[in-house]
Protein 1
Amino acid sequence: MIVEISDLQALDVWRRTVVASVRCDAPDLSARQMSLLLTVYLTPAPHTVRGLAELLKVTKPAITRAVDRLTELGMIRRKVDENDRRSVLLQRTVKGSVFLREYGELIVAAMGGDGEGDATGLPPKY
Amino acid sequence: MIVEISDLQALDVWRRTVVASVRCDAPDLSARQMSLLLTVYLTPAPHTVRGLAELLKVTKPAITRAVDRLTELGMIRRKVDENDRRSVLLQRTVKGSVFLREYGELIVAAMGGDGEGDATGLPPKY
DNA sequence: CTATTTAGTTTCGGTTACGAAACATTTAGT
DNA sequence: ACTAAATGTTTCGTAACCGAAACTAAATAG
């Protein structure tokens, strides 16, 4: 029962955050793209296509495409591994750091609201 | 400084949750689709296309398409409003409830998993 | 030196999504 | 009744994305 309430509270923080990010006109990233971006920024390097494909249990082309998209958005960068020139290392960028920092702030704002402020700037109905 | 750490902790919970959902082979929903689904389930009815378009600041066709997709996935349902037959009410389904309940469990697991320590000895807020 | 394995990308056919504009249907105004 | 407004969907042309398989380039084995 308490767990149920906790689940609902957690989901509601999630809702407020995602709604705020959509309203802010942030790029409409898919779960795959977001998981890739967060992994590159928050887990220790090196990050390769193969490693991410295994971590996320998706195909390599799916990773390549997500990297393509995130590169277009300027949130990530490719760099050939000089120790093994077959490998591509995925690296952070300033723009990606800014985006994720702001995203973190959205989450914290959504947590702080807890029933009043909701980071959407709208009345509490939504 | 403390805020920075808090942001990073929040982002890491987010990362663990999204990575887990991708690994679980959950549907690869976009931020828009997820925000729509969460809003229908966690905010008071009625939910209409127009209302959601305004809430999320996206076009009505974008909402129609997201509803199409979520309907195909069985996570949401359309119902004509009998008081104003122009309107379509968006309603919950069992499948959607199950999906979101499991998603909430993923978030809670990501919070408890590791790295939540803040050296205060106090339990995490959620 | 050739064969095999490995890493990542590209191709293929088909699906999903986008905004703008046009659309049908229903309600409200006069 | 006849017009005007509102709601949601469809169409249009375009871009993103999917998994499977073919592919290039680099490293390793025999």
Note: Residues 28, 48-50, 60-61, 63-64, 81, 84-88 of chain A lie near DNA strand C (CB under 10 Å from a C1').
Protein 2
Amino acid sequence: MVTLEDVARQAGVSLATASRVLNGSTRQVGADLRARVERAADELGYRANMAAQTLARGASNVIGIVVHDLTDPYFAALADGAMRAAAGEGLLVMVGTTHRDPEQEIAYVATMNAQRVRAVLLAGSRVSDPEVTGRLRRELDRYRASGGRVACVGQDLLGVDTVAPANYEGGAALARSLAGLGHTRFAVLAGPPHLMTARDRCAGFVAAVEELGLPEPRVVHGPFDRDGGYAAAAETGDATCVFAVNDVMAVGALASYRDRGVRVPDDVSVAGFDDIATLRDHVPALTTVRLPLADMGSRALELALAAGETPTVDHVQGEVVLRESVRDVR
Amino acid sequence: MVTLEDVARQAGVSLATASRVLNGSTRQVGADLRARVERAADELGYRANMAAQTLARGASNVIGIVVHDLTDPYFAALADGAMRAAAGEGLLVMVGTTHRDPEQEIAYVATMNAQRVRAVLLAGSRVSDPEVTGRLRRELDRYRASGGRVACVGQDLLGVDTVAPANYEGGAALARSLAGLGHTRFAVLAGPPHLMTARDRCAGFVAAVEELGLPEPRVVHGPFDRDGGYAAAAETGDATCVFAVNDVMAVGALASYRDRGVRVPDDVSVAGFDDIATLRDHVPALTTVRLPLADMGSRALELALAAGETPTVDHVQGEVVLRESVRDVR
DNA sequence: ACCTCCCCGGAAAGCGGTTGCCCAGTCTTG
DNA sequence: CAAGACTGGGCAACCGCTTTCCGGGGAGGT
């Protein structure tokens, strides 16, 4: 392991000079010494020890991102947006995946605190359990107390900078669009009852439907993933239009209908939420609410890095995208 | 920022004792002192500074993963597998995305070396440019010279532990299966010419076709992504069966045919490679070569962590999965 | 010719932990 | 009961780098 000292010795200069040459400094170093140091470093294959730099400088150039599941394209897109933004700032990214375990999320915040990362981004839905949220919040406070910055994508209930997708409004807008096509009997594949994102989307949808004076949608709960959508789709009764609270579930629902010989959109219309890029070529093309996921990720990083006294909440609107998975029944 | 010293002072013990209580050690500490330290740490909200620990211990508990693109489900699955394995070992993961820029890949290796990560996993196809590969290799050697471990998913040309999907054999097996269905006129959406993974899959396919005495497939190059597949599909001539060297391209090709009114599989059969989970509900269901991506990711981590004198190369076979996107023309 | 100021090099004090070593007290054990 | 074996606590020397402060020497001013 070659250290700065080795380089300095080989170059015949002091540690200070070598440090100034190799790792940036306001101070100038004479051209000849500078060249000597650079040559020595190159010959020896020197790489600065970042742990030492972090310790000495008291600040690291790493940020942390905590997501539920990288194989879920929703989080992948979010993470990618944040990582591009981070790369633009010269920051490295440390990623944690919780696989939807809130305890893991708390543990990751603690770990990233220990890493003294510059900022932590929490992506993914909060759960409604106040006890868990409280513990997470305490852990975040502890981190912020020592100078850490935090931003969150999802619900605004941690008292930190947040990029909040308009889940409720998106659900409502979608409901109005679908009703506009003449649908009256709706069902919602609502995901887990405690997951805020799922709940808000569902609630917005249901509220809008009722506001239009239409019959209350049947709400079917289940897991938030493809298989959850598949299973829940079996219980949509006589609804002519089904809203799955995310695209991945919607795709599961489509598969379920296909397997059972139910035609989409002829027999039943299906809509999702998120507009996942990987799923855009699905047949039938999925009606959905588009969220600018990559932008949301990079925006979250911006928020975290900006000084911000009082927490900013960025509401981002979704855009209803009507595609062939829904039928105009007027 | 609360330090160990603060905790020690508050607990009225020495630094050494506090360290032994809080950050594990072979040495025992008396029950009363232990309790005092723990209480103090909790009251103060102490979190060990990992940079300091890394420096003092001379080893970090972080591993690095370098992928091309997280939003590509292939890499997401690989990364997820590796991350699960890492979590099982109590390791944290630092992720770098190169967006297919080989220079970025080299830069990330340098950075992760600086971070003194325990191991680096390089996922994603190597390119055939020997100059770039040489520089990457030198950077890796530099890292390994200082005790770093490296494993790679893809081609075995860096002289490190490698998980090598049998791209050539997979392509060949697929060709034989398709020929077995009676197809004779093939085309290959071959991706970029310099990308090893794409090249191997294509080469295996072409070789098997020729070995069967069938006419040489038409090979169309283009980008390795969805749009590349879409564009290339326009140039498949009179082929009755088209092999896209990955699933994402295949989906692009399907979209292209759909847009042009070419029916799949009636007019043309389409096959991909990888068996991406997110795409399994695609219609028509994609014939492909299944790769156990998550396993490959975790296996790569294992290889990297194992002591291994001479580099191990793990060949992983793909499995042809016939689905509706190909037609039996016998 | 002298003084000041600036520029650049080096010595050394941290940054926040870990751990080898010494030491006092308590336990065995012959 | 003396002597060796443990136990558990603390001191202090690092780990590799940054940065403050000090000093020497050359340039510029008078």
Note: Chain A touches chain B through 54 residues (CB under 8 Å).
